[in-house]
Amino acid sequence: MIPRSTYQRMLGLAGKVAVILILGFLILPAAVVTIAAFNDKAILSFPPQAWSWRWFGRALAYQDFRDGFRNGLIVTAWSSTIALAVGAMFAFVIDRYRLPFKKAIEGILVSPLVIPHFTVGLGFLILAAQIGLSRGFAVVVACHVILVLPFVLRSVYVSLKNLDESYELAAASLGATPLRVLLTVTLPLLLPGLVSGWLFAAILSFNEFTASLFVTSQRTQTLPVAMYNYVREFADPSMAALSVMYIVGTAALIAFANAFLGLGKVLNIEQSH
């Protein structure tokens, strides 16, 4: 019979091995892409036989990638900002007011979470063609607003639920007008939720591909669409190099938010404790 202490040690060791295997499985695709990005040969292979940085230079110099990056920033800035304004307004109204069909309204607002993105993209493509609109930035931004709106809505709604309304009542009892209470008390307390909502909306919008494939043209294609068009013609490690830069950029953005705002506040973690 195995002693109890030995059994506990074996169980603890098995748990640690399982955690390491799961974590390794999660980061395995990113690790493979990162290593493949430094392949010296003009073909995607793993592991590389020789190492080189040249594909990073090609990815940075490729004009379609540069245009896609610029277009992605334009679409991301507009869509995440509009989604923040609309989502915050709906979250405030849903939390503070009694509305008829409140559950139905909430369901419609978060429905893009369960509707396939290609359905949203195809719908916008048909609508734009029907009313004579080209696949310009306005169509792309409108499509992205719908896709990222649920994330902003939920982020601000959680912040409102965690907000201590006694601060607002105290300000109102001292004579502050509703607008002054909103601007000087409510919005500052909601800032972590607003920032987290905008941040996640921006990341999702910049990385969105499926719906963008339907609503973008050569002039407005975003970076993921440009990468898709590139891989249809070429199979060199430029894609892997660009993916590595994607990962580094996103990590830097999260680190920036953590350094200046505190990741706990941005993710609404501190309020939940």
Radius of gyration: 24 Å
Task: Give the assembly state of these chains.
Answer: single chain
Give the count of helical stretches.
12
H-E order: HHHHHHHHHHHH
* Portion of residues within helices: over 70%
Q: Assign the structural class, choosing from mainly alpha, mainly beta, alpha/beta, alpha+beta, or little secondary structure.
A: mainly alpha
- In round numbers, the mean pLDDT is 86
Taking pLDDT < 50 over at least 5 consecutive residues as the criterion, the unreliable ranges are none
Shape: globular
**β-strand number:** 0
Q: Roughly how many Å apart are the termini?
A: 44 Å
Verbal overview:
This protein is 75% helix and 0% strand. It is built from 12 helices and no strands. It has helices spanning 4-36, 54-61, 63-96, 102-110, 117-130, 137-162, 165-173, 178-207, 210-215, 223-231, 238-261, 263-266.
Can you describe this structure in just a few lines?
By secondary structure, the chain is mostly helical.
Topology:
Layout: H1 4-36, H2 54-61, H3 63-96, H4 102-110, H5 117-130, H6 137-162, H7 165-173, H8 178-207, H9 210-215, H10 223-231, H11 238-261, H12 263-266
Helix pairs in contact: 1-11, 2-11, 3-6, 3-8, 3-10, 5-6, 6-8, 7-8
